[in-house]
Specification:
nine-stranded mixed sheet; alpha/beta; 14 helices; 46% helix
């Protein structure tokens, strides 16, 4: 197996070979999969030079799902990239090759070069995998899969993945193939497509923060019919829709682990009605309040909401993880260490007890607080409200709304072309 230093050297080579960094990951993921599936044919194509390679790519990608041939036309150095990957495949063998290229892919993702994609923070990925526990015999659903990094970390028996962004879907699908994950993958907007329930064991998702959705596009979907909240759904209620969709996808014993922006935990109106229903029906198992500045795309602190259809007991476990992060040396982003993630996981299971960070709150206490689940209502630690700029965060949310609208337009164009 290659050492970490050797993998780092290959990573730097890949960056040099593909000059257009914005296209690096989408090209690399497809290229790595092509080599994995037919290294000998690619080697022959490489012998004929760049024209021969493009002829091969045209033929090889034309009948494959979730590919992006146009991305290959944006860069130079493709012959060198494929030659390096073929050499890697031949020297390491298929098993080691797959492990190396997946490691390289996550390194590229951490660069956050693609401004219209949201990547999961690696430390959060580790935390969610620890919370999920052993998923080797489970079917997992993610309606906003992104690169499916969490699913890779969990290694479930089967994954049902949905993604709205075509370029992200290309990357995610290729990496799932390389990881040999049995996957049901579709390019779609999970909130507006009326999809039947897959009756999965676990839903894991980090849906886009601050997303607005025209209510009429989701109003008649089956996942809303199990709730009696009426059809007056505001455009700002996407967090609640993701929660309702998650519950709809679960089987009767299932759990859901969702990352949400903090606003859902105290807003009234439709969100308040959904929150009250979840509390009254004893479906909220726990909430983990995460540190600020932990996401690549915003400094806002998010929360992990854990739902359980077979929850034991009537209390809700609240974990205050805001003070458990370190600062990343290069990006200054908050990072949860392996030790912090283990501590949080043990607080969640009850293996550790520390009232500074963890409280079991009764439904009576929650009722007295008007069903609000905001962190400051239960923990006294002061938030550093000056550490983020509201104007900048609103601008960031606007950028991601624009990216979402662009992805929806591309998705509709793709549908129309079928």
């Amino acid at each position: 197996m290659m050492t970490q230093q050797e993998i780092q050297t290959v990573f730097l080579e890949m960056q040099q070979l593909v000059k257009n960094s914005d296209a690096l990951l989408v090209i690399f993921s497809q290229s790595a999969l092509l080599v994995d599936q037919d290294a000998s044919s690619l080697k022959k194509a490489l012998d004929g030079g760049e024209k021969s390679l493009f002829n091969y790519l045209n033929q090889a990608l034309s009948n494959r799902p979730y590919t992006d041939l146009e991305s290959f036309k944006l860069v130079s150095g493709l012959v060198g990239l494929f030659d390096r990957l073929v050499t890697l495949y031949e020297t390491e063998g298929q098993k080691q090759y797959r492990e190396v290229v997946l490691t390289l892919a996550w390194m590229m993702a951490d660069l956050d070069a693609h401004l219209d994609m949201i990547y999961e923070n690696a430390s959060l990925t580790d935390l969610i995998a620890k919370i999920a526990g052993d998923t080797s015999q489970l079917t997992v659903y993610d309606g906003a899969a992104g690169m499916a990094r969490v699913v890779h970390a969990m290694a479930p028996k089967q994954a049902v993945l949905r993604e709205i962004n075509p370029q992200t879907a290309t990357i995610s699908y290729a990496l799932c193939q390389l990881a040999e994950i049995e996957v049901d993958f579709h390019l779609q907007d999970s909130l507006t497509v009326n999809e039947p329930s897959h009756q999965v064991d676990l839903v894991v998702s980090t849906p886009p923060f601050g997303m607005r959705i025209p209510a009429r596009l989701a109003a008649d979907n089956d996942y809303l019919k199990m709730f009696n909240f009426g059809n007056n759904i505001p455009t700002s209620a996407s967090d609640s829709l993701w929660i309702q969709q998650a519950l709809f996808q679960l089987n009767n014993d299932g759990r859901a682990i969702l990352q949400l922006a903090p606003g859902w935990f105290f807003r009234g109106g439709y969100d308040g009605n959904v929150r009250r229903w979840l509390i009254d029906n004893n479906l909220i198992e726990a909430i983990i309040y995460l540190p600020e500045n932990i996401h690549t795309h915003t400094g806002i602190a998010s929360c992990i909401l854990i739902l359980n259809k077979q929850k034991e007991g009537g209390n809700i476990r609240l974990i205050d993880a805001r003070g458990l992060a370190d600062s990343h040396k290069r990006t200054s982003k908050a990072v949860l260490t392996a030790a912090s993630n283990q501590f949080i996981a043990e607080l969640l299971t009850g293996d550790k007890k520390d009232e500074t960070y963890c409280k079991d709150v009764t439904l009576k206490e929650i009722h007295e607080r008007n069903y609000e689940l905001v962190v400051n209502a239960y923990f006294t630690q002061a938030l550093d409200v000056a550490s983020w700029d509201l104007d900048q965060e609103l601008k960031a949310l606007d950028r991601y709304q624009t990216a979402y609208d662009k992805a929806r337009e591309e998705f509709n164009q793709l549908l129309n072309s079928l």
